[in-house]
Amino acid sequence: MIYFDHAATTGTYPEVLLEMTPFFRELYGNPSSIYEFGKAAKEMMERARKQIARSIGAKKEEIYFTSGGTEADNWAILKTAEKNREKGKHIITSGIEHHAVLRTCAFLERNGYEVTYLPVDENGLISVSELEQAIREDTILITIMYANNEIGTVQPVREIGELAGKKGILFHTDAVQAYLHEKIDVEKEHIDMLSASGHKFGGPKGVGFLYIREGTELPSLLRGGDQEKKRRAGTENVAGIVGMGKASAIGEKNFEENHETLLRMRNTLIERLQTEIPDSRINGSLEKRLDGNVNVIFKVVEGEALLLLLDMAGICVSSGSACNSSSKSTSHVLQAIGVPPEYIRGTIRITLGAENTMEEIDTLMENLKGYVQNLRENA
Ligand code: PLP
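Above: the input record for the complex with pyridoxal-5'-phosphate. Below: its predicted structure, written as tokens.
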């Protein structure tokens, strides 16, 4: 099997699994317990918190563990809205966010809030001056993703953060795809809240975190126990948190090497697609792009058919975004960047991981060339 769908999820690193295992049988104590047995779990959890904080230039006390990216996004948006409703009911986001953000914003709209969805240009980038124009007296939150899960476009986060800071508006960013692919610094980039998810970077599924800048008032999303300084109720997913911390440490240590490896493979793939397969087009910015993302249209080809053929050859890629592969609706991201409807169906997303090899890229290219030609001949 050749795996090219790292934006959907990643395999758990073996070292992560090793680190997690004791927390199921030997060290299964509840971290809230005061006896020694529980304390071991607590200590390892705090080590993970410290590691994650360091990786984004935050303080340990500013990291809160969640069940993943979806919960972190929901928490940041819903509770900012609730807490600041006396101040205003206007939120700014972009039209290409993940559904964890878009559907949360839609929920707020149904409950008396107003949401501005900023457009993006043909590369998938928002305009900071349009953002500035959209800001109103009653704007309480700007939530713009760090990098897009379908086309890999990386937004001008620092400029957005500076503007939000200047205007005194809270800035949340969904960094689920960007974490450990981009160098994130919450201080330099003026980020108030940031979401990430463990399974996108070699950690386990069902665990993530929300960074909340010290002093930001964000009530708990869940009602229940006093965990996470009364801000996130529920017994902690200790093994998951420990595993995510380990994955973060591995990712941080190998950042430069992985980044270079991914860029080399990504650029080779993009160049080969453009030169070896006629009538193909890369979606999204070529410069401001995640290191492992290739999103490509093959004109007059049914992407789903191509995906199934590749699957039969043992190659995993995604059509559009895997986050919504069960939905039949057309990708809102490709629509937003102006891809004509007749071409949207011919899109596949190939997302690389550092463990992929150039030989696997060769195999992918050989298969793609043959299948695209066959599908076109039979179209
Ligand atoms: N945000 C983005 C940009 C994503 O790509 C995803 C998942 O693919 C999520 C949020 C949701 O994360 P999770 O699956 O951990 O809830």
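Notes for the reader.
The longest strand covers residues 293-298.
Residues 65 and 273 are 40 Å apart (CA to CA).
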